[in-house]
Amino acid sequence: MAMKCTVPAVRTRKVVDGAEPLVMVTAYDAPGARMVDEAGADLILVGDSVAMVVLGYENTLQVTVDDIAHHTAAVSRARPSSLVVADMPWMSFHVSTADTLANAATLIRAGAGAVKLEGGRRRLPMVEALVAAEIPVMGHIGLTPQSVNAMGGFRVQGRSAAAALDLVAAAKALAHAGCFAIVLEGVPDQVAAMVTGSVDVPTIGIGAGPDCDGQVLVFHDVLGIEQNIRPRFVRRYADLHSEGVGALTRFADDVRSGSFPSAEESYRLSDEDAESLGLYGGV
Length: 283
Ligand code: KIV
Known about the structure:
Blueprint: H1 7-11, E1 22-26, H2 30-38, E2 43-46, H3 50-53, H4 65-77, E3 83-87, H5 97-109, E4 114-118, H6 124-132, E5 137-142, H7 148-151, H8 161-177, E6 181-185, H9 189-198, E7 203-206, E8 214-217, H10 219-222, H11 240-257, H12 271-276
Parallel strand pairs: 1-2, 1-8, 2-3, 3-4, 4-5, 5-6, 6-7
Helix pairs in contact: 2-4, 4-5, 5-6, 8-9
Bound molecules: 3-methyl-2-oxobutanoic acid.
């Protein structure tokens, strides 16, 4: 069994210092977590992307702390060596620090080793309160999907010089407040490189180019389970949707033709018991 990945071990993983890039993949249930863990990922993110790829919502705004706790508990029951990070849903860290702490505690008690929250400087008091309560926090800036309405859609961020500098300032402030890593989503690769060079905690990119300290992708995207959306930054390593539909079609055909189940796939009484019930050969 691989050694458990810890927050302090992640915090020092800067590529500039010779570290291997971090690998993070989302998972939302025990079998998914086992697959990601066996593949050797450093971190498993129980992302609020569960809303879109599992629960069928159009954005991430519908999931609650209870939803993420439910999926975090399933992931942690797989006992992965990867560090489990639970996403704090929209409105679970916006109202008060007391609320934020209680919500994060629910996710930690469900089995997470850290929480992730979206947003820059406006969220600093929440980050500081969590860190003070010994709850490790991963930041998330750039294209923050919980801001879909405020951004007017899922749009690449940091496209102007001023916006790029703003992201650098946000990353520095989050690192200073105690975040142990920062997700950079949907930003030009040069901006991601600037941000990565300006903080001493690792950046983990998604749609942020190669110059981050690690990369994260959504489980369903990597495996080709979800066919509806295919952002440019996704590389598919399998086509499980087609494979799954093929397998299910063969199952349906076998049921309809009577070839499933076979004798080997069925249970039988002993001859003696069958006989005592008046069931003779062939029944
Ligand atoms: O919810 C999620 O899957 C995420 C990643 C895309 C970073 O936040």
